[in-house]
Specification:
The complex is a heterotrimer of chains A (359), B (362) and C (309). By secondary structure, chain B is α/β, with parallel strands linked by helices. Chain B has 12 helices and 14 strands. The radius of gyration of chain B is 22 Å and the shape is globular. In chain C, 72% of the residues lie in helices and 0% in strands. The chains are: A mainly alpha (359), B alpha/beta (362), C mainly alpha (309).
């Protein structure tokens, strides 16, 4: 019995929604089998990584807080990727957003006022967008590959943090350790649900995703992004400028990454530290694809990724599964997910072997 | 156990009776769960390995009184660690060790939400009712190493690989060079910061760069044996194991090692929690308490040098010798600590200047 | 600067450059076939742990290199199957491959971290390399010469062989290569496997050439540098050689400058650390101004092959 792939006339809507679920289920089954086979508690690992974060209500706040930056950055990237603009430097833009917000927080350290947080918010978005503008400029003016420039700039931005917190921004009361002061009260993001750690960034992430979904599916901007991404030549005839699209895609994705940076530094971090870059920018690339480059899908994907992170820690504390095993689980899930993509565009057909008559 | 009113009353009564019963009886009923949160992996041969060894030691020493210790690896400094701390506290761990500086803010924050859980934060300075801090006087070990270096170095030049210029690293460098200069007043040290805790290839290259420019002793404040392996390969006078005995990696080049021995501290803390006598404090034990240990000396070291090293060690144990007693000049030659004055712990913990004999890095 | 120091610096530069050069040569072939595999870092880590375990168990360095290459191929086949057979997105698959390689190597390496091995010794007898001048030429292990030979081999393959021409055709215009009868997917599979083998060997350089131990994530981001270098070199093997050695020179000079004092040591270490990345951006810009990057970049890079069937 043989199988053959046959192209669908139209991408399957059903498969778009079904394959991510199938990928997660497959990961759980295959993961349990493989990890049991190599001597771990495979079923326990699957339970702790994928189910405990959902069944234990204490964990929901963690999922929200972990997913929020992934969703915000992932939404921006999904817009850029739709337009065929490959910004993979969101980590650097996130860092620059965080640094810009930190600059405002430190400059206004002795001041009070409701305006400080909004100012930080704007500074964060501008910081991220400005850093994304470098690859955009180089791409539109000189046709320099944006994948490489945005990635290289990420590494440079991390060094900028190290420098700033070691020298000019060092906390005078920090015992000489490289970190800034803890921000003043008016520069800290409020918790929106008392007695939890859920901060304003969580609803903002949902709102960002909803707005992006609306814009991408209902506005000329969204249409332009998708047309330029899918068919650049046709787009040119339609009067859409490719350069303008690149600029928009980079600025939006960079601005959102910067927003996430601001929300993280003013929320969970409360000061700038060398450990500020936590791979949100890179993980969000996966989140964007996991969410099928659809802002609503990104919400789902952000939560799934958050589950594996939070669950990975649960598995370490409860059954002693090492953190590297969590990484393998994550990679496996991504592999299944990416493999499932094909079912959206193709269907599997059974091939009936034809016995050829020999003349 | 379902949470009926009667059960609550029973638990309440048991809790009230607890101080009368004493710790041991309770401990046998319910082993103490102890959690450890690490910044890296237990397989790093260095800092995190040391804490994992301490956890193991604690379990072996206290047996059934404690549950198998829970170790959470690769926890970044930031909001992620807050989550792990809460996870540990919620899952019944009553004593939690957070073993990296950057966890500090979050330990304080989570400790407020779990007043009945005791937290101990390594290398930190923020404390509260249920948060203690602890560290080890590694610089005492550095003084022993520096003494050996001063005796054995032919070029009078040592290299020192640091991760980041934080006070703890600066403290180690200063202690090392002060001790070496007591033997050889012309002794110099050049620190190189490599801006990472774990990039063994870069550590090795840094060691090569220093050896090629005339140093013949190497010390490092990074996790792992890379620099020592280069010392072995190049056949220089030698280097020192950091955090653990690394003789397997450099049988000829490792002159001795500074061993992190957290075990006794962890036993002490766990016992105090079980007995109900735990109290927040700042502990900074060193050679005297055995938290910092000097590993075996290399057989190639002459007996008089071993004796000199042992004398520095003994002096620090009985309190007759302190490496940070003046006169001490800074790297420009200006007097920084007057004769007879000893730097306070606070001054040591925030040290951001280099002593004479250090070629300060940018 | 004495001749001895100069020689010593060159030797260190060569060591630091070699794994990056090997991995980048592999990625160059992959990209020339029109595929972008961002999983180099992950494949390198799989190669590094494989090489370490083999040399620890058998003590045979050459077997270790061979099996590291095989492990790299096996890892690359995950990428190949997903992106070529199932036409999954290459960027995302490459990132997932790096997550996989990082986790898998750490899992496989548990228990191997406190174990030392020995470096692969120089290829030529020590008598040849006694004088510093000869040491610069004959003082290295086989991995270094392998990298240099592969530069020429890759150049020759691409420029002078029919197979190289087919590979480039597949990368430039997959549809027309398909229409004249070449198996686009088959060629790309071979390219991806070659990239995997080279990444595996590049990973093997860490325990065998640079620091004879196993440490989790010991490649510390050099796989990404290799990916960047391919573009930096505008897909040309000899420029790749220059780029890899330039990178090795920058990172090595930082350490020598700091260790030796002098005016260069006044540069903050953060700037040194950022320099290779900023330099890559600058070179990308310079190349683009000369307009040959756009002509040299494989036209199908990163795009799945989707024939209308």
């Amino acid at each position: 019995m043989q199988f053959r792939l046959e192209k669908r006339r139209e991408p399957s809507k059903l498969m778009t929604y079904l394959t991510p679920v199938a990928a997660v289920v497959l990961t759980m089954v295959v993961g349990a089998v493989i990890f049991s086979a190599i001597g771990y508690d495979g079923i326990g690992a699957v339970r702790e990584i994928f189910l405990t974060p959902l069944t234990n209500s204490f964990k929901w706040q963690d999922l929200g807080v972990k997913a929020a930056p992934l969703i915000i950055i992932g939404v921006g990237l999904s817009i850029a990727y739709r337009a065929n603009v490959w910004n993979i430097g969101a980590e650097g833009q996130y860092v620059m957003g965080g640094l810009a917000a930190t600059g405002v927080a430190l400059a206004t350290y002795t001041m009070t006022g409701w305006w400080i947080l909004p100012l930080m918010f704007v500074a964060g978005m501008l910081g991220g967008a400005a850093y994304a503008a470098i690859p955009a400029l180089l791409k539109t003016r000189l046709n320099v590959n944006e994948i490489l420039t945005s990635l290289m700039l990420t590494y440079a931005s991390v060094q900028l943090i190290y420098y700033l917190v070691r020298a000019p921004w060092k906390d005078p009361m920090g015992m000489g350790f490289p970190q800034t002061r803890r921000f003043a009260a008016d520069a800290l993001l409020p918790n929106i649900i008392p007695t939890t750690i859920v901060h304003a960034g969580v609803p903002i992430a949902i709102i960002v995703a909803l707005i992006a979904w609306f814009v991408m599916s209902r506005s000329v901007f969204g249409y332009q992004m998708k047309v330029v991404g899918a068919a650049p030549h046709a787009a040119r005839y339609g009067g859409f400028s490719e350069n303008k699209t690149i600029w928009l895609a980079m600025l939006v994705s960079g601005g959102l990454a910067g927003m996430a940076g601001m929300l993280e530094v003013a929320g969970p971090f409360q000061r700038m530290v060398p450990g500020f870059p936590t791979n949100y920018g890179f993980t969000a690339i996966i989140v964007a694809f996991l969410g099928r480059l659809n802002p609503l899908g990104v919400i789902f994907a952000g939560i799934v990724m958050a589950i594996t992170f939070v669950g990975g820690e649960v598995a370490q504390t409860t059954i002693g599964l090492s953190s590297s095993a969590t990484g393998v689980f994550q990679a496996m899930m991504l592999f299944f997910l990416l493999a499932g993509d094909i079912l959206i565009r193709y269907r599997i057909k059974r091939v009936v072997p034809v016995v050829e008559a020999r003349a | 156990m379902t949470l009926t009113r009667r059960n609550v009353l029973k638990v309440g009564a048991a809790a009230a009776a607890l101080p009368l019963l004493g710790g041991k009886a309770f401990a046998q009923a319910e082993p103490l769960k102890v959690g450890f949160m690490l910044i890296g992996t237990v397989n790093d041969n260095g800092w995190n390995f040391g804490h994992a060894q301490g956890a193991k030691f604690m379990k072996e020493a206290l047996g059934d009184a404690v549950a198998e210790p829970t170790i959470v690896e690769n926890v970044p400094e930031g909001p992620d660690c807050e989550r792990v701390l809460r996870e540990l506290a919620q899952s019944g761990h009553k004593l939690i060790f957070a073993t990296s500086f950057g966890y500090g803010d979050y330990v304080i924050k989570v400790a407020e939400q779990f007043p009945d859980v005791k937290f101990e934060h390594a290398t930190g300075y923020q404390r509260s009712d249920n948060v203690a801090t602890y560290n080890a006087r590694f610089h005492e070990g550095r003084a022993v190493c520096g003494t050996i270096a001063g005796h054995l170095s032919k070029t009078g030049k040592a290299g020192y690989i640091g991760s980041f210029p934080i006070p703890e690293v600066v403290l180690g460098i200063n202690s090392f060079v002060l001790a070496a200069r007591k033997v050889n007043p012309a002794f110099e040290i050049t620190p190189v910061y490599i801006s990472t805790w774990n990039d063994p290839a870069k550590e090795a290259d840094a060691a090569r760069a220093m050896i090629d420019q005339g140093i013949d002793i190497i010390a490092q404040h990074t996790d792992g044996p890379a620099a020592l392996q280069v010392a072995e390969e190049r056949g220089i006078v030698g280097g020192f194991g950091q955090g653990a005995d690394m003789v397997a990696f450099a049988p000829k080049a490792q002159l001795t090692s500074i061993i992190d021995n957290w075990g006794p501290t962890y036993v002490e803390s766990a016992e105090a929690v079980i007995a109900g006598t735990w109290a927040s404090a700042d502990r900074w034990p060193g050679l005297k308490e055995g938290e910092v240990q000097i590993g075996p000396y290399n057989a190639s070291i002459p007996a008089d040098v071993v004796a000199a090293a042992e004398a520095v060690k003994a002096g620090q144990i009985d309190g007759s010798f302190n490496i940070f007693t003046g006169p001490i000049n800074d790297h420009t030659g200006a007097e920084r600590v007057a004769a007879g004055v000893t730097l306070t712990d606070g001054e040591l913990l925030s040290m951001d200047w280099y002593v004479e004999g250090v070629n300060p890095p940018a | 600067m004495t001749p001895e120091l100069l020689v010593a610096i060159i030797v260190t530069v060569v060591g630091a450059s070699t794994p990056i050069l090997i991995a980048a040569l592999g990625e160059l072939i992959v990209e020339k076939s029109g595929v972008l595999n961002l999983g180099v870092e992950g494949m390198m880590l799989v190669g590094a742990i494989t090489a370490f375990v083999i040399v620890f168990v058998t003590g045979n360095h050459y077997l270790a290199i061979l099996l590291a290459a095989a492990a790299g191929v096996a890892t690359s086949l995950i990428f190949g199957f997903l992106t070529l057979s199932l036409s999954a997105n290459q960027t995302a698959t490459g990132l997932a491959l790096t997550i996989f390689g990082t986790g898998f190597s750490a899992l496989a390496g548990q228990g191997y971290s406190a174990r030392p091995v020995t470096l692969l010794g120089p290829l030529f007898p020590a008598e040849i390399a006694t004088h510093p001048m000869w040491r610069v030429l004959f003082g290295y292990s086989a991995l270094v010469y392998f990298a240099l030979i592969m530069v020429v081999a890759v150049w020759f393959f691409l420029k002078r062989t029919r197979a190289g021409l087919i590979l480039r055709a597949v990368g430039e215009n997959d549809l027309s290569a398909h229409s004249i009868g070449y198996s686009v997917i088959g060629v790309r599979y071979l390219a991806v496997m070659f990239g995997g083998a080279m990444a595996g060997i590049a990973g093997a350089c860490f325990p065998l050439l640079l620091t004879p131990q196993w440490a989790e994530r010991m490649t510390a981001g050099r796989g990404w540098i290799a990916v960047a270098l391919v573009v930096f070199a505008s897909w040309k093997p000899f420029r790749l050689l220059a780029g890899a050695y330039l990178f090795g020179l920058v990172v090595t000079m930082e350490l020598y400058a700091k260790a030796g004092g002098g005016p260069l040591s006044a540069i903050p270490s953060e700037l040194w650390a950022a320099l290779p990345y900023l330099a890559t951006v600058v070179v990308l810009v310079l190349i683009s101004i000369r307009r040959d990057a756009s002509t040299n970049a494989p036209a199908c890079l990163g795009k799945p092959f989707l024939p209308a069937n």
